[in-house]
Design goal:
Residues 147-212 form the HTH luxR-type domain. It comes from Tessaracoccus bendigoensis DSM 12906. The chain is of the alpha/beta class. The chain has helices at 11-22, 36-46, 62-72, 90-98, 111-122, 133-140, 150-153, 156-166, 171-178, 182-196, 201-210; strands at 2-7, 27-33, 50-54, 81-85, 103-106. The protein folds into 2 domains: 2-139, Response regulator (Rossmann fold, 3-Layer(aba) Sandwich); 146-222, 3-Layer(aba) Sandwich (Rossmann fold). 48% of the residues lie in helices and 12% in strands. Helix 8 crosses helix 10, helix 8 crosses helix 11 (201-210) and helix 9 crosses helix 10. The chain is globular.
């Protein structure tokens, strides 16, 4: 069962999302809050799989709340935040993704899209609206940053995971070496793809080698045995 916590200052929005998700047999809404300050302690206690977070709220905004939740989450259980917005909030969406959100959901999305987004994010993937994904990826890159400068694009942990992916290690092998959950590893990989604009793992690895971030003679990270074949 995927557990969800809803954060939005509008009661009708919260009620609507709760109603839409109540018909899904594999999703359960375990709580809701009308502000980020109200939500933070409840999310820490309840440990939901996904937090649906409005980005524009009085007091603490959704970006700040996302940053705090991600920073304070356990290494083996990253908080997965799916921010809710409209097309007019693109600037804030970029800030939320940079803060660690796993994706964004348009408030007028269909019930099927909302449920699919929750499932994808819960599994460690990202969710971006297809019509704006390319533009958002471009804007996620730090200002003045060379789009091939992998070290500037990724956090130290993401760089570590990319080196392991480039060495041919599976998510399960990375999980064991870094002592993380496999879903957390998958989240790191998804964020690597998002930040580098790579369509899949192979493209991210190709970018890592092409730009000199990794080299064929590099030792396998963590001392793992490289895969055969």
């Amino acid at each position: 069962m995927i557990t969800v916590f809803i954060v939005d200052d509008q009661p009708l929005v919260r009620a609507g999302i709760r109603m839409l998700l109540s018909g899904e047999q594999d999703i359960e809404v375990i709580g809701e809050a009308s502000s980020a300050m109200e939500a933070l302690p409840q999310v820490h206690r309840g440990q939901p799989d996904v937090v649906l977070m409005d980005v524009r709220m009085p007091g603490m905004d959704g970006v700040t709340a996302t940053r705090e939740l991600v920073a304070e989450s356990a290494a083996d259980r990253l908080v997965r935040v799916l921010v809710m917005t409209t097309f007019n909030d693109e600037d804030v969406v970029v800030e939320a993704l940079q803060a660690g959100a796993s994706g964004y959901l348009l408030k007028h999305a269909s019930p099927t899209e909302i449920a699919d987004a929750v499932r994808r994010v819960a599994s460690g993937d990202t969710w971006l609206d297809a019509t704006a994904a390319t533009a958002l990826v471009e804007r996620l890159r730090p200002r003045g940053c060379d789009p091939t400068d992998v070290s500037a694009l990724l956090t130290p942990r993401e760089q570590e995971v990319l080196r392991m992916v480039a060495a041919g290690l599976s998510n399960a092998e990375i999980r064991d070496l870094l002592v993380l959950s496999e879903a957390t590893v998958k989240t790191h990989v998804a964020r690597i793809l998002l930040k580098t604009g790579s369509r899949d793992r192979a493209a991210a690895v190709a970018l890592a080698y092409r730009t000199g971030f990794v080299h064929p003679e590099d030792p396998v990270p963590g001392g793992a045995v490289p895969p055969m074949g």
